[in-house]
Amino acid sequence: MTKHNRRKDLSLGLPGHQCALRSDTIGSKNCRKPRLHSLRQLQTFALTLLLAGLCGPAKCAQDASGGASGVGRNLSEQELGSVDAMESCAAERHKLVEERVKFEGAQEMLASQSESMHELLARNQALENSLHEAEQIKLALTQQLHKVTAVNVTDVGTGQEHAMRSLSFEFAERLAADAMHAERDTQKLMHMSERLLEVVRGSTGGAAAKEKAARWVAANSGHDKSNTRNIHGSKHSTDSTGAEQAAWKKWKEERRHDAHSLDGQEIFSKSVLNKLKDEVHAMFTDSFESYMQHAYPYDELRPLSCSGKNVFGPKGYALTLIDSLDTLAILGDFTTFDAAIRRVIREITFDVDVNVSVFETNIRAVGGLLSAHFLAMKFLPWYSDELLKMCVDLADRLMPAFNTKTGIPYGTVNLRKGVPHGETTVTSAAGGGTCMVEFTMLSRVTKDPRYEMAARRATVGLWSRRSKLGLVGNHINIETGVWTHQDSGLGTNVDSFYEYLIKGHLLFGDGEFLTMFFDSYNGIMKYIRRGVWYLDVNMHSGAVSWMVYSSLASFWPGVQVMVGDIEAAVQTQYSIHSLWRRFGGMPEGFNLESGKLHNGAEGYPLRPESVESIYYLHKATGDPVWLSMGIDILVSIQTINKAQCGYAATANVVTRRLDDRMDSYFLAETLKYLYLLFDEDHWMRQESYVFNTEGHPLPVLHEFLNFSDLEYSRRAGAVCGVPGMPECEQQTVRGACRRQDYKRTISAYGFDLMAEEDDDDELLSATQPQEAAAVGDASAAARAAAAAGAADYGVPATHKEKTSGE
Question: Model-level pTM greater than 0.85?
């Protein structure tokens, strides 16, 4: 209450007249009530009223003149002798009696307001004390942040050890300071301080703290858990007893001491991680059962309306079921895994008249079937390659898309009729170059090189058209080989092209892919990386063309872990997670120039890229800070995205409005990586697996690394390190073939080399004429085979022939 308001309340409704007690003025309009501004004035005026009520008009006037000078003046005897004056004085006395009653009421009200004012002052002092206490907590938190350092890690890409420098955590301090400065609610401020401290120290956060507090209070105050939960929860109990409050305060002090002590017990214990793992498991079970109950055999679940939809058209092939098979095995639901595979074998067919995305069908369905095939061989005794046969059938239906002049596939294919009539010849780099992992694995398993040859031709077709900076563009014309969109980045339309270069090397030991990756990596780190962010640039000049960070680029720190660039991965992942902490989800696009969400990209469709990188970083470093980030993601999804059936995508991360969709990758990737993050002893983390870009694990097997089939190797184009083939181990680049020899290998696929590469070949021809002649003959033969086309690559010469053949 302000000083002005208190003054106003004191003068409200007080009785009396600020005029002389004269017969000619009593009752006139000139009389007005006084505004008394002090307690002394109030007491003086009260005395005047009392005298007026106890005496006649004459004595009243006399005492009033002596006891309260300035309020009234003496009346003359002539005026007092007037009958009219007597009647007026009597009437005035009656009024004064009435107003005395009102005054007593006002006096009581004033006393009540005074008590309220004292109470408000006391509460204000308590708030000031609480704010001071919160500031002390924040100060202690900042000191703890500086004590957190990184650990020595083993480079998973090269096997060399890298000592990571101490992390400054400046971003965390800035986030904490901004959030706490803007918050003035004491309870929220205290909770924010404790929650942030828990994240840094590695606690499970609010849920575990509430449970522990409830148990402690119940044991020390004799009250049940339901009552004590309200003490710490968001809904506070209004009738909490003094014992409960004292117990809670004591528990909080003990807990704060433990939190600030570096010698306290380790917070990320096995029991805590098991609890987190079980929560992820429960989320998957709820989502998968909701899909099977409300959406199957449609492709995906609508979690808000509890219905289903197909992804590519009016018909589908139960995409979510296929995409979720390996997750069932990883989570240990082997009974459901067994039943799901039997259902896929029995009920799913790809003989469907529907136009599908080559990219999405490959990474989700082909990759999902291949991964489930290997896991079924591992866990199901009755299984006999049924999923592998389905995978071959589906891959054959995708193969017509690869019958192009450049080898880069069309973006769309009809599963029954081949490439649709009038299909665009423009495709993205990611769409054309993200098939090497699945198709090569399928060829290695079936000993049929057609799939690997088609995928390798597509990948080399894109890479051979890179710019002098080592970058590829967003979109390319698959017939002319001309880039139609020359922006280059790590987000949409490009991302998985680079990812599959390094994963192709890790899975199959292919040195060519390693060389291609590092050529691109150098260009990415020099031109696309700006600070800790990765932006879109012109592929030829390197000039920034788009200041929007795409959430799809969040996979990149995980790739950097694979090649041993841990420090760069750590820096970028912290920046990415700062956006998550700000919005409770990773928006599809964030404008780094304006600091706002990109228009039309405000949602978070439950994507996995950020948690994927967090998983790789934790696996490489063992630092609990990555577990803390995983908890942030877990709690956000549980809190914001839970729907009636499963979990719904966020349409807008600011308004938290949900979208009626649950993409299959939420079960195939997001929950899978979260589960593996919290299960540090999982068998998959102890074995050699490489995940495709949809999160489907494929095993690194010795028989796929060594080319025992010489004829297969010749047909597939593997010319380096194979018995009976030209060796190049003496001049290697990061374990790959010699640069010049590798360029000849690329030219053998029928692609034109860039000008500077031709110069290299001419120089090599002058120094090694015989070898150059031999390679030239091989290149000519390969070009002839490529011109002949279909037989070598296992694709039809024309789309019309494929359709008529069926």
Answer: no
